[in-house]
Design goal:
The complex is a heterotetramer of chains A (371), B (241), C (335) and D (289).
Chain B lengths: L4 E10 L2 E11 L4 E5 L6 H8 L4 E9 L2 E2 L5 H6 L2 E4 L11 H8 L5 H14 L1 H4 L11 H13 L5 E5 L7 H18 L2 E5 L3 H7 L2 E6 L2 E7 H5 L4 H5 L7
Parallel strand pairs in B: 3-8, 3-9, 6-7, 7-8
Antiparallel strand pairs in B: 1-2, 1-4, 4-5, 9-10
Helix pairs in contact in B: 3-6
Chain C lengths: L3 H28 L6 H20 L10 H31 L4 H29 L18 E2 L2 E2 H23 L1 H11 L1 H6 L4 H23 L9 H4 L1 H11 L4 H26 L9 H13 L9 H9 L16
Antiparallel strand pairs in C: 1-2
Helix pairs in contact in C: 1-5, 1-8, 1-10, 1-11, 2-3, 2-4, 2-8, 3-4, 3-8, 5-6, 5-8, 6-8, 10-11, 10-12, 11-12
Chain D lengths: L2 H8 L3 H12 L14 E12 L2 E12 L3 E5 L6 H8 L7 E6 L2 E2 L5 H6 L2 E3 L12 H6 L20 H18 L14 H14 L4 E5 L7 H18 L2 E5 L3 H4 L5 E6 L2 E6 L1 H6 L1 H8 L2
Parallel strand pairs in D: 3-8, 3-9, 6-7, 7-8
Antiparallel strand pairs in D: 1-2, 1-4, 4-5, 9-10
Helix pairs in contact in D: 6-7
Classes of the chains: A mainly alpha (371), B alpha/beta (241), C mainly alpha (335), D alpha/beta (289).
Amino acid sequence: MGLPSIGIFLTPELWFWVAVYAIVSLSLNLEAGITGIPNFGKHLAVIMGAIVGAALPGYLGVHILPEEAKQAIIEAAGKGSLPSYASSYNSMISTYITNYYASHPAVSFAMFALTIITAAVVGAIVGLLASYPAARLKEDYLAITLLAAAEATLIISYNAPALGGTQGLTVPNTLTWLDSLTSRIVGRNMAHQVSSLIVAAVVAATILWYLERLVRSPMGRLLKGVRENEAAAQALGKNTAAIKLRTLMMGSALASIAGSIFIMATLGWIATTYNRVSWTFWAWAMMILGGMGNNRGVLLGTFILASIRQLITYYKDAIRPYLPFDPVWLDQLVLGSLLVVVLMLRPEGIFAEKTTYPLPRKMLEDKAAAR
Amino acid sequence: MGMGLSVRNIDAGYGKLQILFNVSFTVPERKITVIVGPNGSGKSTMLKTIFGLTTIYKGEILFEGRNIAGMAPHKIAKLGIAYVPQTDNVFGKLTVRENLKMAAYGMDESIVADRIEEVTSMFPILSERMKQRADTLSGGERQMLAIAIALVRRPKLMLFDEPTAALAPKIALEILDAIQRLRDEHKITIILVEQNAKRALEIGDKGVLLVGGKVAFEGGARDLLEHPDLARMYLGLMAGE
Amino acid sequence: MVSLVYLFNSLLYANTIVMLSVGLTLTYLTTRVPNFAHGSLATVGAYMMFTVAAVVMKESLVSGNISMPLVLGFVLAFLGGAFAGLMEYLIVLRPLKRRGTGSLGLMISTLGVDIFMVGLLNIYADILRGMRPATGVSRDWWLRSYVLSKVAGIPVGVWVSFGVMIGCLTLLYMLLTRTRFGIAMRASIENPQLAQVLGVNVDLVNMASWIIAGGLAGLAGALMAFVVRINPVTGSDEVVAIFAASIVGGLQSLLGGVVGGYIVGLSSTLGTKWLGDLVGVDLAAYKRAVPLIFIIIVLLVAPQGLMGVDWSRLRRRIIGGRSVREERLTVPHAR
Amino acid sequence: MNAAKRWLVWKPSWTRLKCCALALGGGRWGRGVGGEPADIILATESLTKSFGGLVAVDGVSLEVRRGSLTLLIGPNGSGKTTLLNVVSGFYKPDYGRVLYEGRDVTGWPPYKLYGIGMVRTFQVPQPFYKLTVLENVLLASRNHPGEYFRAPLAKSSWLRREEELVDRAFEILRLVGLAHLWDHPAGLLSGGQMKLLEIARALMSGAKLMLMDEPIAGVNPTLAHEILRFITRLKEEKGITFFIIEHRLDIAMKYVDYVYAMARGRLIAKGKPEEVVSNPLVIDSYLGG
């Protein structure tokens, strides 16, 4: 088991998981680690992003198809008019759209950009709506409300006919503009995986860069202040409810982008993928293990847990003989006990939160020493 | 020194916030010891400290020759010490009878009814209110119930934290009367913290003046009452020491 | 028109939500932690019942025969839930509280407990499947066949469900009002410090609340097996409905939990059915969205829940009279 | 043109104007010294607040003159802190009004009151525990251009201001004697130091009116004098008004301009410090009668 386990770290798949999860756990860190909002419905934003990623390139794609493609679909379906994207002809329609995108890289890129932006906007709006009722109340209520909103959205999207219902959807590929480049380098088979990884990694890096600058700005200080003492923040003129709402909008927008990227990579929508264990609790575990409030720590936590998860998935069969139970449940046992054990033994995580001043420390030390 | 209580070199507070500084005094048996002092001088904290409700950094509290500093409150209660807090001293959502039953928690079932009978005979008004919820009682009745609750266990030592605060003067006198009866008729040792220094010292035997978390005077209640600087200290016009 | 079977199923479902919501409220009142693992405590109870079904009942049991094994199943369900609840408190929550973990950390730890319990239940479900091959490859269990025969025109399951629910709540009521320990519990909930001063070991009271809440949840899980197919995540999936019921009740009183449980339980089943019939669409799939709607409405309109609303004051307000100003919810911490 | 306006234009008599001024200024017309209208920064009118059956603040009407150091004294449970909580927007009153610079601000949330120049401190210090002393003080700054989500992308828009604020923060920290602890987490300070930090934050806010709940309780006398001297300096140089709850009169006395005394939720005395502390009603309220 020794050598092949290293092989995992060479696959784009693992790194794609790390990158996508990094976006989610970093956005959770913004909300929970830095601002102290107990977002137990992180999967809400991810679902919304995935919905946008599943619906937009398809529904919009059908309309921009050239006439002959539309005619071909109508003929193949054997109906008088163009069938809906989410109908039983979904996978055929998606193939047509993907082919069209593949031959028009500019359109494909535009659709990709539009999807990401729309996902962010939708995520922000949903974050606002979901937290509005409870933003002024105690954190218990906020946690429950966010969890409930996410669960309800999951159920609704699982049953929504426009999203293919329980059958799900095959989603057209909006990354064809990048796939054509990567296929020249890594070959056709790996192309989509690699381009997904590139997109995810670039977005994750950008978000990390932004959040690192955020904690080193007065805004980061303000958010930590809201976390540390709400009454004091209010007395010092901060509208804490509004700040929390804005933070949740920002965090949800980021997580929503992760959802849309995930759909772009997997090219299949089925609501149950976006359950709370996968997208909320794992993200919490990554954040707590790495260190709440510390972006780099959270990144490390994300890497560690994504690797463990991946290792468990890969070596399920290899470890089966050594376990008295089916290794598929190892996931849950590890995740559950990890959350509790870290809270008990090292509540600050691997990397404790660090003080980050907007000005260079040297300058501050000089000022402190000056008389 | 037998049954009394003696506080020795106590440093105590809440968490990191130290309130009491090297406080020592003795409480004579079957007498009323009155602790007075201006706002924020640590009077209530002193009572809570005796009852194990604060953090004690240093010192001992001897009761019947035994150091009770740092014991859990529910264990101190079983030693025969009762504490009547200033506010929230009855369970508002429970009926008067339930409050009294509650006070007898852990006692032998056979004597509970007698004890409840006994304390309600001291405060007859309570026996008329047995089925009423405690939060429907008037301020004075509530205070009586609080004392009754503490009495159910027949304590040897009772700690009162400002029992007359926010009561009409006539009711306040009744309460202080009842406290005097506890000493005279039931031979209970009493520590009384009072904002109303004059009246409390008039019924008390011994006086302890706390200022800024330190003992500024310890002696006879009369002596303290006639202390020329008492008023000035109370108004905070003279810091202790 | 709602069919009779659907009505019975709805009532059975509502009963379980009531029992779960009362337990959740109880532990919230004593320990001040919203227990996100409460649903899984019910699943533990359900699997205790299945264990009896697999080991003792076998197929030979005549359906509808309320026999000793069924009673044994309920006893084990209670004990299993109570044990799991107590362990959650003793192993996880109490040490964390003593360590000074904040409410955010405590909430997360209950999430961790939930996932861990689901993992254990999954493993146990595998073992159980091996013990009773009759269910084939399916890991979903239910005991509908045991309780389908009718007494006085109503399925035995409904009788049992109401019997267990009413019995439990009556016992709980008696415990809390008639026994000294129960009074001590209520007292500790209202004012832990004063209770301590009067000689109550508050930690013991907390432990008892987790035993009771876990036990009630276990029984609820066993009852749930009469209406729905149960797998290791069934209880966990109900957690939103349970919280919604408690929030509708105000999270402050056990009676609120009962009222909230029926409101949420019945409206998510009967309500969606009725509304679906009205608009001609099958809304059953969306029933899980109903609790959310309740949470939102209650938090926006009356954050203290139904039991917290001053109804007489509200009536005055509607009929007329001086306006009532509400308390701000952020108050600087006292002491 | 609406009815009220038309009414004004139509009959601009002296009485009408006085009525309007009364309405706008909350009845503070012509009560000044030497014929000039008194400049009252804060006034309460029949302020009442009860909890359950207990009336904690019972019809309190008081005025705080601009640029004064006004003290509110009273024994435990007299309702001082509740009054402050109502004035500073943490509680809503059951009855009565709060007027700030003549404007009715009854029931405004704390952050809005801060916006118009009213800031408060707490009796039990409320630091941002994990943040450092310097960060605590910086958080009190007003209208910081860097407190937005776009801040990380537009560093130039706030960097200079941040530097100015840091200078100011250090100045204040030196004043209260916490400069050497600037990099310490506030949660690790001692009780007295937290008190100082609380004051430093209030000073940083640049408020016109500061409501302080026992600012020098638990602080050693030397430091307490320093703080009060500093407050006096601020009062004189910057014209900041201080409304302070305090019971350590020994130290505070000589810095105070005006004193109100409360007992059982009501005002029982007001006047110059010496008058109030020798008032038998006040002494009785402390010692009991």
